[in-house]
Structure formats: structure tokens, C-alpha cells
Amino acid sequence: MAVYTVLIPKAAPGEAPPPERIVFLRDGFSTPAFLFGPLWLLWRRAWLPAVLWTAALVLILGGGAALGINPAAVSVLQLALGLLLGLEGPRLVAWSLERKGYTESAVMVAARIDEAEDVFFANWRPSGVLPTTAPPSGGRAAMRSVIGGLFEEPRA
């Protein structure tokens, strides 16, 4: 199961934000961010983090060459920086979106992003508030099937 953070853009008072602008970010390690670095940030339209990340890479390369640091050590530093971006890339994208007026609205747990979207939009209200009650279909029987019978039945 993956964890998805839902970010909703600000809308005019009394209006719902358009559903196609709602962003679902998968939390956790991002292999494309690790492999492609600042290009991945540019693809996700996180301009400021992409510029700062590129500056950090150039500083490591330039500083390593200027100071005469072993190229293997510079490569290890670049690998560590790539690993850090793989771990924190989705948070940098979320930060960039929050700077553009998005707000973190919900956290969804699902196997795939389409399942997270289905559950979110089934429960989403234009005000951005998710209902706290269980859906009417299923009730306790559905909850018992989800738990899988780990607990004893209550006695009357």
C-alpha cells in the first residue's frame, strides 16, 4: 500500500476548485527523482527546488575540481545528493505547490493512485472536508471483513 498526499488549489470564495487541478503525490522513495534529479523537479514544475538542486550539483562538481578533491569522493557526494532527492523529492514538490496556493487536504492509503483518486472523489465535498462517518453500505459487517476476524464477536 502506498500513501498519497492530496493537495487542493485555492478557489474563489463560494466556488469549488476544479477537480482536474487536484494533485495526488505519492509519498516515499521516488526512483525517477533519484535517477533524473533536477530534470524530474522541472517535469513536476518545482522551479525553485530545481534551480537550487542544480546549484548544489554544480557547487559539488566545481568545488571538487577547484579544491582537487578525489573524483570518487565527488561521485559519492553526488550519489548521496541523488539519494536525498529520491527520499525528499515528493516533499519538495508539495512545498513548491504550497507556495503556489495549494493546501494539503487529505492523506489517502491505497494500492494504486487510481484507487486513491476514486476514494477521495467519492468522499470529497467542495468545501474540502471529508466526511468522518463510515459509508452507509457495509457498516460493521464490512469492517469485520476488512479486519479479517481478528477479534472475537461481542457477547450479548
What report would you give on this structure?
This protein is α+β, with helices and mostly antiparallel strands. The chain has six helices and three strands, in the order ββααααβαα. It has a three-stranded antiparallel β-sheet, with helices on both faces.
Summarize, please.
This protein has six helices and three strands, in the order ββααααβαα. It is an alpha+beta fold and 156 residues long.
Question: Radius of gyration, rounded?
Answer: 22 Å
Can you count the beta strands? 3
- Low-confidence region ranges: 138-150
Q: Give the neighbour order of strands across the main sheet.
A: 2-1-3
Separation of termini? Answer: 36 Å
**Main beta sheet:** 3 strands, antiparallel
Oligomerization status of the protein chains: single chain
Helical proportion? 40-55%
List the main descriptive attributes of the protein structure presented here.
single chain; 156 residues; alpha+beta; 3 strands; 13% strand; elongated; transmembrane; transmembrane helix; membrane
